[in-house]
């Protein structure tokens, strides 16, 4: 491959890079979590593939911006809930 254009094929957890969750409870999840610089917060993208409970979860420690340069379609086939609190 081209070292200037790496392709991520997976992840490896070890002593210095532990999984965000504990096994076996999170065995159906793939999580990408960053850590806030000089702080205790984090941003997270999690995929859960447990049968019948599939979920995509996004956590933004502070702000979350979405930019769509063309069309966006959102389809919800059941319930939708939105909460805004201050």
UniProtKB/TrEMBL annotation:
Annotated region described as Disordered, given as residue ranges: 1-28
Lineage of producing organism: Bacteria, Pseudomonadati, Pseudomonadota, Gammaproteobacteria, Enterobacterales
Superkingdom classification of source: Bacteria
Family annotation (Pfam families): Gp5_trimer_C
Protein name, entry field: Gp5/Type VI secretion system Vgr C-terminal trimerisation domain-containing protein
Coiled coil (residue ranges): none
Gp5/Type VI secretion system Vgr C-terminal trimerisation domain mapped to chain residues: 30-85
